[in-house]
């Protein structure tokens, strides 16, 4: 981006040039709609040759409201050629080039009124507008002068920051190559260690599987034994069938605690049958009864040596899901709120350990060594992988930063990472340059994103006058929110105002010394500025 060198000397030169050219302008006759710089191309003493050299016509045909030249050059001051441009001198203000279609269209485009020469209805307002523009330029020049030193400081800081990021990037890229090399090495070591571990564990796995299978059989036998014992106890007439009346004498099955075990209650424990034989009892009824029996045993632990279910005071039975009303152990609380969360995984872990230790075989020294080495190799590989990932994400972050356009001389760079606030009666607005625009309702403290940094959107010659933040939170029944930020020069960074000119389209005014630079001006414009 070109940055003009604003010196008093330059301004003086411009003024002198303007004066000279302005005088010259009045002396050089030229057809309507032709700029001073092109006046020499229209010589009334000669025939006119179109600029594309395709045709030569008598000079009288220039601006005769008939388009002779394909390039439109014979009609600079009429609307006859659709592809020609009309130049208004706008003496006293800024010269302007407009499309020929705007000539005599009833709208005053040129402040000197020359574009509407047929109706002559446009008064010359260039003097007032010029004065106005010059006053604005003078004020801006004063501001720029005041803010320039600050801008230079910001710029120096920005250049330094950007260089630091670039250096960091080079460093990270080197580290990444090394980290990837280490990761590959660790991966290979892990593979080797796991191969050895796998061979060594194969024998043990078989043993472990056998132990597991044996345990499963033992467990099934135990269940069978418990179930058979209970069946025999409850089958009071010993006819090999457990029936509803037999179960009705067992108080623990009084689910609704009304003092008696109803037929339905008894039936529900017998797989909804009238009676059940031992084999079916083991499969269908015992799983329903066991939790109740265990609860009974757990709550009313019989004295040592008295293990019979019958000796339990059955009338004190509880509902299946009811908690015992015995005073529970007072829980031990820590100060930490997340105590419960802490405890659970620990318990699970404990259970896992228990199953593991139940079936785990103790390895011989050599195997244990290989297992430990493989565990260590796995952990080193995971660490190496994480290290590559971390470096990569930092590289991505820096690359994103370096892609951002921080304006001429990086003057806006120092604003990155800072946020500026503006409060109105309803909301707190936040602008975090190069990041986001946010709206926070005072009442709910809820953040609404009004846009994410997109790009500079100022006009040609001064792109750093306006920023766009888009793709914000969706507007109800509408587009996603977006924010335009008008950036102006001042001696401090400040979010000056916020408006919502259209629903969910926000307009911020932000001032900063970073914007204290002279605006580029087109040489053609300067010519006619007096
Ligand atoms: C919220 C705010 C307003 C916006 C409406 C649109 O109230 O974000 O700025 O106009 O939503 O529904």
Describe the structure.
This protein has about 525 residues and is α+β, with helices and mostly antiparallel strands. The chain contains eight helices and 14 strands. The model is unreliable at about 1-5, about 15-20, about 300-355 and about 520-530 (pLDDT under 50). It binds alpha-D-mannopyranose. Alpha-D-mannopyranose binds near residues 439, 448, 475 and 504. The site of alpha-D-mannopyranose has 7 residues, from loops.
Distance between the termini: 28 Å
Task: Note the total helix count.
Answer: 8
Arithmetic mean of pLDDT: 84
Which ligands occur here?
alpha-D-mannopyranose
- Uncertain runs are 1-6, 16-21, 299-355, 522-530
Largest sheet: 8 strands, mixed
Could you give the count of β-strands? 14
Shape: elongated
Tell me the strand percentage band: 5-15%
Computed CA radius of gyration, to the nearest angstrom: 45 Å
Helix content: 40-55%
SSE pattern: HEEEEHEHHEHHHEEEEEEEEH
Output the strand order for the largest sheet.
7-8-9-10-11-12-14-13
Classify the secondary structure makeup into a structural class: alpha+beta
Topology:
Layout: H1 8-27, E1 48-49, E2 56-57, E3 85-88, E4 96-99, H2 126-234, E5 241-243, H3 244-248, H4 263-269, E6 275-277, H5 278-299, H6 339-359, H7 365-403, E7 420-423, E8 427-432, E9 436-441, E10 447-456, E11 466-470, E12 482-489, E13 494-502, E14 505-512, H8 523-527
Parallel strand pairs: 12-14
Antiparallel strand pairs: 1-2, 3-4, 5-6, 7-8, 8-9, 9-10, 10-11, 11-12, 13-14
